[in-house]
Structure formats: C-alpha cells, structure tokens
Amino acid sequence: MGALTPPAGRDAPLPAWLAAGERPADRPRFDTVVVRGNGVGALVCAARLARSESLRGRVRVAAPLPTESRRLVNGCTLRARSLDYYAGALGCDADVLTDALFGERRRVAETWAQRFSVAREEASGFRLGPLPVWMGEGAREPVLAYGLRNGHLTARLAERVQALGVAFDDDLPETLEACLARAPGKTPLVVNGSHLPVGDLPKPPAPDRFVVASQLALRRRDDAPLPAHHSAFVMRRREGGFDTGVFYPFVDPLTPAADFYGIFFRIVRPGEGFVKADAIAPMRHTVEGVGHALGLEPVDAEETRGEAMVPCLPWSDVTTPRADWLDLHRTYSACTPIITGDGMTRAGLAGWVAAEAVLAGEDPVPVTNRSLRIWRRANRGLAWVMTHPGLLEGLLRRFGGPIMKRANGLPDMWAPVG
Ligand SMILES: Cc1cc2nc3c(=O)[nH]c(=O)nc-3n(C[C@H](O)[C@H](O)[C@H](O)COP(=O)(O)OP(=O)(O)OC[C@H]3O[C@@H](n4cnc5c(N)ncnc54)[C@H](O)[C@@H]3O)c2cc1C
Hints:
D-Amino Acid Oxidase, Chain A, domain 2, single chain, 5-stranded parallel sheet, 418 residues, binds flavin-adenine dinucleotide, FAD/NAD(P)-binding domain, 9-stranded mixed sheet, 17 strands, 12 helices, alpha/beta
C-alpha cells in the first residue's frame, strides 16, 4: 500500500489517524453493516469492514454480484493512486492487485505521459492542433494510470470481497427498511453504494445538469501520431461549450484486440426540446473522428461502445438524514461525473476512509467529505473551462501544454506514492 506518512498533497485532508501507526483500536458504534450496491465504492468499503476484527462475519452486500459484458459501461481510466486506496482497504499490496487485474498485459495498460490538443472538424475530418506532453515525463515510472473496463474491476473486487466471507444478495433492496431487515445484528449501519435512491427517505433534488458521453475500445495503428503509453486529452469547441475527450492505453480480457480506449463527453442542461440521442450522437462522431486523427481505430464498435447520460450532483459536502444511513455513493459522486476521470479513485478513497471511520467509531460523513475536497475542486475547475469556451480555445490551441501544466495544481493527483 502507498505510504500515507505524513499525509500530503492529494492526501493532505485525510485523517491523521490513517497515517501509519496512529490508527486507533476498533470501537465501531454499529454491530453490523449492510452495503447496498456492487460498484467500486460499495466493494472497497465492504472489503475493509469485512477484514476488521470487530465486524468480520457481520458485513453483507445487499446487491447481486456484478455481471460482465464487453460494453464499456462506466469508467475506464484508473488513476494509479486508486490502486493504493483499494489495496489499503483490501489489506494487500497494490502491486499484487495490479498484477491480478492485468496479468501478462499489465504493461500495455500503462499510461506514462499525457498530451493535450485542440481539435477542429474540417471537410476531410478532424484536425488536431499541436499535441504537446503536459503531464508525466514519458518514462515508465511513475505510471500515471491504467486503462481497464469498469466491469472487469468490479468483478475482480467482488471476488475478493466474497473471499473475505461476505455474502451477496440476489437483488438490490428498494427501501432502507428492507436493507435494515437484512442486517443480522441489532445496531446496523446501511452504507448506500448505489446511485438508485431508496423509496422511504426524502428524494434528493432533481438534477438540472448532466454529462453525456460515448466511449469505445480502440486499436493503435503503427503510424499513429500518439505514441504508445501516452494518453491524449482533446477539446473541441462546439455550440457554446467544449466537447472533451480522452484516449488511454487500455486492456480488456474480453476484447484482447484493443490496446486503447477513447471517450468524448459534454456537460448539458436539458431544456425544452432536448433529445438525449441528439446530445449523445456528436460524442460518438467526435470520439471516432478524433481517435482516427490520433491513429486509433474502433474495435468491435457495436459491442464495445458504451453511452451514458449521468446526472451532476452539487459540488458541496453531502449530508445524511440519519446516523444509520451513509449515502456513500452520493458523497463520492458529487460534482460533474466522468469529466476528471477520477470517479473510481474517489469511490475507492471514500469507501476506504468511510470504513476506517466507522471502525474507529467516528462519524464517517465529515471525514469522507473532507477527503474528497481536493478532487471536487479539480472537477469544478474543469467543468468551468468546459462551459466557458470564450477566449480559451485560441489560448489552449497555442499554449495548451503550459496552461494545462499550470492548471494541474497538485502534481500528485495521478501517480501512486513512490
Ligand atoms: C461513461 C462513464 C465514463 C466514466 N469514466 C471514468 C473514468 O475514466 N475514470 C473514472 O475514475 N471514473 C469514470 N467514471 C465514473 C466511474 O465509473 C464511477 O464514478 C465509479 O465506477 C464509482 O461508482 P461505483 O462503481 O461505486 O458505482 P456505480 O453505481 O456503478 O456508479 C457508476 C456510475 O453511475 C453513475 N450514475 C449515477 N446516477 C446515475 C443514474 N441515475 N443513471 C445512470 N448512471 C448514474 C455515476 O455517476 C457513476 O459514474 C465514468 C462514468 C461513466 C458513466
């Protein structure tokens, strides 16, 4: 596991007691935990709780085991630091976990540097501006990110959670009452790791902003302008905003021909006459067109393409109406999803930190919110840029590399602690 002593950089807001040797003895206020959901946050949280002396055998996942398909549903860019958080919760070495996820093709999935460009569409297709490196040095260490299919990650995490003696249910309970009824103890905590709300708690306000996205598996041509192990971050100005895309080295055992994946996304405010399919279609067109310009061609597009329209949540801290209900999913999903490629990082960080707080007998809500603030700030910054193209297109086209370098603020948001 990556060292946390002393917590610094992106980990500065983490509780001091997470630093090596300062962890208090277990004194949880709950005798059982029901984790509702089977995503990254739910599984990481369940793993840490199930590994503890105090709650071993008393953790249940109220959701079915994740199922896998070739379609790229949910996140594919796994910031390398995420693996440290998962390993912290699972009590294993991050390197061992990485090997288990990627096997012999681990190296293919590695991103060593990121380039930036602004694209324009012309009659002959998409044209890229300069493509400078803005993140990483291009050497193997430190690896910035790994590309994988989210369903592969959750399936492997679920296997590890099961191996810790945690039972999974066949369905997702629709109410808090139904979750509590599944708890074998007298003082249960329900951790919500699903985006679906429960029917017997106040409904969260309806979102007015969404992110639309289209992503698919790709293969790099021999003559690709994008070097192996480099990812690309590309913006395209269109209709008062930036369509934004990323392309990363990627490995998926279900699509072995692919060695990259790409995604384009945009923040939308649906008004009168909004048609979801019409908002997603340009994302599909642009991810394939810009991918081609980078030297990346689709692999089984009809089977690997995943498209989504997901709600944006507030940037502020998330509270909970009851002490026995922790809405972990809402806490780590706060902000504009997808755009900063950190959803799986935040889910792992929040799942791990919340579990540690529960075990330490602390209120997990403020601790978890605090640990996510730097990530939320970065997300808010990019969302602002994507929705205020103004003079930015010209500036980014000419000085994209140095501007991105400067805007990156914390240099350690991607790589593990070395
Ligand atoms: C198209 C897409 C691309 C993404 N790309 C990345 C990436 O590259 N890197 C990364 O770290 N994270 C990415 N994310 C986010 C990441 O998948 C999740 O944040 C992460 O998996 C943690 O969620 P979970 O697995 O715990 O829960 P899950 O319940 O599996 O959540 C998965 C996703 O569902 C979304 N969601 C929430 N509400 C709804 C709703 N009402 N309808 C449909 N979906 C909803 C969430 O925003 C979340 O993104 C992406 C998400 C999507 C949808």
